[in-house]
Each structure stands twice: as C-alpha cells, then as structure tokens.
C-alpha cells in the first residue's frame, strides 16, 4: 500500500479516518452518513481513474 499511496497518501487516509471517528463519537448517525459519502466518492474516483487509464491505453 505504501508503494501506491506514498507516505502523504497514508497520512491523508489516517487524518480522514480520525476526522470521521471524531464526528461519529459526537453523532453516530451523521458519522455513518459521512462514511457512506466517502465510500461513494472513492468509487467515483476509482471509476474515473480506470476510464482515464483505458483512454490512454494503460489498462
């Protein structure tokens, strides 16, 4: 995973998880909604990256 994301990417993931954890402690329903939102955004980003790589013939 470190080869793919790098140290900055791993730090970003940790910061996002800490932020969602703090939000979930404050309000669990809102925290769950934010986690679903982040999962959806990750799927969109993966789809865009895959289609871009196919457009350039890399996949």
TrEMBL record:
Keywords: Membrane, Transmembrane, Transmembrane helix
Transmembrane segments: 5-23, 29-49
Name of the protein in question: Uncharacterized protein
Organism from which the protein derives: Halorubrum saccharovorum DSM 1137
């Amino acid at each position: 995973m470190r080869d793919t994301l790098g140290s900055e990417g791993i730090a970003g993931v940790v910061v996002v998880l800490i932020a969602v954890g703090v939000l979930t402690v404050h309000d669990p329903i809102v925290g769950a909604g934010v986690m679903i939102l982040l999962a959806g955004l990750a799927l969109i980003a993966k789809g865009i990256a895959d289609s871009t790589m196919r457009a350039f013939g890399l996949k």
